[in-house]
Amino acid sequence: MADSFPDRAQAFFLFLHKQARQAQALYLLGDLFDRWPGDDDDDETATETRRELSALVAAGIGVYVQRGNRDFLLGKRFARDTGCTLIGDTHVLTVGERRLLLMHGDTLCDDKAHKRYRLGRSLLIPALAAFMPLARRRNLAAWMQEQSSSSRQPVKISKQTAIFSLRQNRCQTLIHGHLHAPGEETWQDGKDTFIRICLSDWEFKGGYVKINTINGEISNQTATITT
Fold first, then answer.
1. Nearest to 19 by CA among 222, 171, 227
2. Model-level pTM?
3. Residue 19 forms beta bridges with which residues?
4. Low-confidence residues of the chain: pLDDT under 50
5. DSSP string of 25-81?
6. In this predicted model, what pLDDT tens digit does every residue of 144-181 receive, in sequence order?
7. pLDDT per residue over 39-59, tens digit each?
8. Cβ neighbours of residue 204 under 8 Å, at least 6 residues apart?
9. N or C: at which end does the chain have fewer Cβ atoms within 10 angstroms?
10. Tally of CB atoms within 10 A around 67
11. Three-state SS for 85?
12. Cα–Cα nearest to 32, from 17, 21, 23, 15
């Protein structure tokens, strides 16, 4: 989300007031923000998002947040201000006897350019950001978003890498984002069957999945966005 997309932000806040209030927990799988210059960001959307998430946590809903490739600078201050729990790139959610693998999804991409970007992102940029004033970090974040958008190519995850992660974490179902292309598919690998579910990015309509905590059943849901 960003101030330049107020309809999308308001749709998300409405979702927090309605559907999310009916849940036991909410998992946000990265790129909650189109850009995040740091936990001291005080623009209107960032401030309202912190306030809305804090209210959801105060209502007794657990909120768990993964970092995405656009908001990787989310940190401890954000967690403290909102009451949310930051989780790692790979998170296993156990529902009954079912184990679900939750990921943002960019770590499943084998593209060499993206791997180099992730290396710099995880080591160099946070170190530089620690010494930059907010205004400069905002400019850097905006530039990185612009570069990402202008050069966006069809993004794919590696099936081999995804299945390796599923096996490593003893899961049969992967839920992730990142691709900007919602969908669901079933993979057969030897005698094992795996399910991959990709979430919508809320650019045109809000997509999320609802997980039944009793039987682990997953159903796709839609939240309307006005554009």
1. 222
2. 0.89
3. none
4. 151, 227
5. EEEEES-SSS----TT--SHHHHHHHHHHHHHHHTT-EEEEE--SSSTT--HHHHHH
6. 766 555 545 567 889 999 999 999 999 999 999 988 77
7. 999 999 999 999 999 999 999
8. 225, 227
9. C
10. 23
11. strand
12. 15
62: its two tokens: 């657990």
Residue 192: exposure state from Cβ atoms within 10 A (0-12, 13-18, ≥19): exposed
Burial environment of residue 168 by CB neighbours within 10 A (0 to 12, 13 to 18, 19 or more): exposed
Task: Name the DSSP letter for residue 132.
Answer: S
The rounded distance, in Å, linking the Cα atoms of 160 and 40 is: 39
- Longest CA pairwise span in the chain (Å): 54
Distance between CA atoms of residues 54 and 84, nearest Å = 8
HEC states along 142-207?
HHHHHHHHHCCCCCCCCHHHHHHHHHHCCCCEEEECCCCCCEEEEEEECCEEEEEEECCCCCCCEE
Q: Which residue has the tokens 């101030």?
A: 3
Structure tokens of 105? 């999804």
